[in-house]
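User: I'm putting together a teaching handout on how multi-component assemblies are represented. Below are the sequence lines for each component of a complex, exactly as they appear in our records. Could you produce the 3D structure of the whole assembly as structure tokens, so the students can see both representations side by side? Please keep the chain order the same as the input.
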Amino acid sequence: MRILVTGAAGFLGSHLCERLLNEGHSVVGMDNFITGNPENLAHLANNPRFEFIRHDVANFIFVPGKVDAVLHFASPASPNPASPYGYTNLPIQTMKAGALGTHNTLGVARAHNARYLLASTSEIYGDPLEHPQKETYWGHVDPIGIRSVYDEAKRFAEALTMAYHRYHGIDTRIVRIFNTYGPRMRLDDGRVVPNFIQQALRGEPLTVYGDGLQTRSFCYVDDLIEGIYRLLMSDEHLPVNIGNPAEITILEFAETINRLVGNKAGIIMKEHSRLGDDPQRRRPDITRAKEILKWQPTISLEEGITKTIPYFKKKMGLE
Ligand code: NAD
Ligand code: UDP
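Assistant: Of course. Below is the structure of the complete assembly, with chains in the same order as your input.
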């Protein structure tokens, strides 16, 4: 297949491009580098099956030649207002990538009669009242909260994807991605994994926001990409959660990072900077992924973090 991947220069997009090329497909990567980095794609530059178009997906998209599949991953993705790359500091761009970008990429799929896959998120469940989160849960989202620019754009994106499926017969898929980590995360986007690993490597205390009792479930990138590839190859049109169901408090997560890095500086508790909309619990129910895709994660948190540390060491100039 010849596959358009938006958000190609980002963390997940770059891994996806690599996987698709390894499967023998041709890839057209698209990105405007608002939160991504061309370095993430440097190793693909000489691959004759890889092309790159610098473009903002909020504007009309033209891809010359045939397109067999469109994977829409372009969007800022970090909630942290302490980083200039957090979506709360890119609110309009985030809404445009999720709304106009989804419309334009669905338009490409329709024009080329291509299959389509939307990168959605566990954030569409908001601060969930149901636990763990099943795909049937409708969510608990404040439409005007500071995270709403991301959550509501993704909810709109899911609705538009289903509209194109139901009314235009487009062959669509929706993946609801839960917290994923690994090499090529942006060092300064403020997400918890880059923050904690860098603080630990610098021998500083880890900044735990709030009481640290909020939970997350962290998935290693290779597991996630495997699930997404299986979904792309499936005929499933309804949303599928992909994530690791091993749930951990942020406090326990900080202790794990300190242990794996050998950091003795401990933890400091920090005032929450997010006006109270930090989801308290998050854990995917992956029954559907298991049944439909025969997928489940295989990499434990300790293994995944151990595979990720060398990337941060290199980027920080520590080796
Ligand atoms: P990222 O910031 O590393 O990658 C996003 C990429 O999209 C960047 O390269 C950025 O420059 C590009 N982009 C943003 N707006 C654009 C626009 N208007 N036009 C063209 N390119 C644009 O983030 P990521 O973690 O790789 O996330 C990728 C996708 O996966 C996002 O859609 C995100 O919502 C989704 N997601 C990620 C996670 C996670 O844990 N990493 C969880 C849930 C959902
Ligand atoms: N967090 C933290 N310290 C940090 C960064 C994040 O305690 O330096 C917390 C944050 O408040 C949230 C969790 O870690 O509860 C995960 O945050 P992240 O920004 O990675 O993404 P989220 O899962 O909230 O979308």
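A couple of points students might notice: The longest strand covers residues 115-121. Residues 6-7, 9-13, 31-36, 56-58, 73-77, 97, 101, 119, 121, 177, 179-180, 186 surround nicotinamide-adenine-dinucleotide (ligand 1) (CB under 6 Å).
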